[in-house]
Design a protein that fits this description.
Layout: H1 18-38, E1 48-58, H2 65-75, H3 82-89, E2 94-104, E3 107-111, E4 115-116, H4 118-128, E5 132-136, E6 145-146, H5 149-154, H6 171-187
Parallel strand pairs: 3-5, 4-6
Antiparallel strand pairs: 1-2, 2-3
Length: 188
């Protein structure tokens, strides 16, 4: 399962070699092992529940076409040309986003239709408590990166206008609110 890792890269500082992956692998494996050990074995029939909800997430603000041409010409980043043009051609005001919780015993998979930042993954774990919450990114579609407000302020690739950045900054809070309501239904 793809978790909430929209803002996590296996690089340290500016490196991009396999040594970074070798350092991160044991840390990830340790967390997976810890999570599995924390899940109790079912002694009764396993509880299975599913709770979906579709949201209409607002489109992110987009620059005027004149601004984008100037950016693409002076920036030097290839994606500002074709990929930005592709995003500007998509004139939708909202994007449907299907959230889905699937409870299997004391674990709850939270399907999120995009690439959530780790802050959203941590919120899923907290919302699921005392159950074990597992964020599942790229589930039921793709609305791009799901970025918390403070990360929008910092900027970067994930919030640059392109086909990977479809939804507005308030989408993060809308998704969190909807997940909170879904978790309340599952835990009742």
């Amino acid at each position: 399962l793809q978790g909430a890792d929209g803002d996590i890269n296996p690089s340290v500082d500016d490196t991009r070699d396999f040594a970074d992956v070798e350092r991160m692998g044991p840390a990830l494996a340790g967390k997976v092992t810890e999570t599995i050990e924390g899940m109790s074995a079912a002694k009764e029939p396993v509880i299975f529940e599913c709770a979906p909800q579709v949201l209409d997430l607002p489109s992110r603000p987009l620059p005027a076409p004149e601004e984008t041409a100037a950016q693409a010409a002076g920036d030097g980043r290839m994606w500002l040309g074709d990929e930005l043009a592709e995003r500007l051609l998509d004139e939708r005001k909202t994007y449907p986003a299907e959230l889905q919780l699937v409870r299997l015993g004391n674990a709850v998979l939270a399907g999120i239709p995009g690439e959530p930042f780790c802050r959203l993954g941590k919120a899923v774990r907290k919302l699921a408590s005392p159950l074990t919450g597992v964020p599942v990114g790229y589930a039921n579609g793709y609305v791009g990166y799901i970025v918390p407000p403070e990360s929008w302020a910092r900027g970067g690739y994930e919030v640059d206008p392109g086909p990977w950045s479809k939804v507005a900054p308030e989408s993060h809070a809308l998704i969190l609110d909807a997940l909170g309501n879904l978790f309340a239904r599952i835990k009742d």
